[in-house]
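Lecture 7 notes: from sequence to structure.
We start with the chain below.
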Amino acid sequence: MPLCGVMRGGYAAPMIRALPLLIGLCLATPAAAEFAVCNQSFDVVNVAIGQDVEGAFQTEGWWTIGPNQCANVIKEELTSRYIYLYAQDVFGQPILNGTTQMCVSPRKFSIRGISECWSRGDISAGFIEVDTLKTQRWTLFLAATQ
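Predicted structure tokens for the same chain:
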């Protein structure tokens, strides 16, 4: 039986009515991906991740995930207990209220370091922390609730 936790957030975008998001964090059954994000909402989302890579934080993005689709965002076996996630809608509006500030860029990116985002031409964004409980595989579900 999977071990799950639940986190709530919300978002609003121009011309789209506000829908609260329910984020389910569950251990994945054996699969090809080691960290997958599944979009169970009604909208397309863009996802970025952050993790410790050889002693320094690194962020990467973007994965565009359609409704009822999943993306394999980390394909290797997980080595960090904590993975950080940032998600935004197609208008660039954040849909999660994370408190860990890390760097993102408007286009596809891989950024080493999480400080001084603006001075490097990047944007600071609030990532949520996902505790994978030191497992080797994890699936995170983004689901809209009404």
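Points to note: The longest strand covers residues 16-26. Residues 1-31 have pLDDT under 50 and may be disordered.
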